Amino acid sequence: MSVWEMLAVFSAGVGAGTINTIVGSGTLITFPVLLATGLPPVTATVSNALGLIPGSVSGAIGYRRELAGQRRRILKLSAGALVGGLTGATLLLALPSTAFETIVPVLVALALVLVVLQPRIGRAVQRRRARTGTVARPDGGPLLFVGLMLASVYGGYFTAAQGIIYLSLMGMLLDDTMQRINAVKNILAAVVNSVAALFFLFVADFDWTAVVLIAVGSAIGGQIGARVGRRLSPRLLRALVVVVGTAAIVQLLLR
């Protein structure tokens, strides 16, 4: 890489770490930049997954206050994310690189609809629980576990807009605030990125220069994202999710 290419990759890492911590979809910043430096698609995907691990960890640390009291929920959901992430990483090497191109924009669009409707869905669910005398399950139940595991399969494969899908599922099935849900999202993203990256270390090619530049940049971005994201109101956070998600859909369709 030239000096300017290295600077571009580092800057993309900062941007990705920031947006991943707040919403998700940071891969849509780093992946095109890596391709522009001449890396093959699979090598770029693997290098990106490795580089974004510090950003996910950094973002989770920045949200540590919102993680309080969620240990059991995180452990259970992380188990599903681990299985899904490993499955997705395996599929990346087994399937053609275009395998997910058709379905991904549809998944992201559906996730955005759920994010927009989440307050209304939440109120409807609360009214139903009041009528039936039931209480919300703190872990979201089997539906959330399976949904997040399937989302993690996609996350281990590509990761773009993975966080948006996580937010939509947890926002719909958990009775909790958007900020606490966002904190869990950062943990799950760290799990998926880590298990996929460890798998890639033994079976795929990667570019160490790209990995290091994205790792340093995303770690810095994770702290920036945590500072910004924790100050956003639930309504503004949902609006940002919709804006970023819409941009993700446009970029995926134009690729």
- Helix/strand order, N-terminal first: HHHHHHHHHHH
Low-confidence stretches: none
Strand portion: under 5%
| Cα distance spanning the termini | 23 Å
Helix amount, in percent?
over 70%
Look at the helices and sheets and give the structural class. mainly alpha
Mean of residue pLDDT values = 81
Number of helices: 11
Q: Major beta sheet, specifics?
A: none
Radius of gyration: 17 Å
Number of distinct beta strands: 0
**Inertia-based shape:** globular
Q: How many separate structural domains?
A: 1
Q: Could you please describe the fold and organization of this structure?
A:
With 255 residues, this protein is an all-alpha fold. The protein has one domain. It has helices at residues 3-22, 27-36, 41-51, 53-62, 71-94, 103-132, 141-157, 162-173, 178-203, 208-229, 234-254. Helix 4 packs parallel to helix 10. It is globular, with a radius of gyration of 17 Å. The mean pLDDT is 81.
Question: What is this entry, summarized?
Answer:
By secondary structure, the chain is an all-alpha fold. The mean pLDDT is 81.
Keywords:
255 residues; 11 helices; single chain; globular; 0% strand; mainly alpha
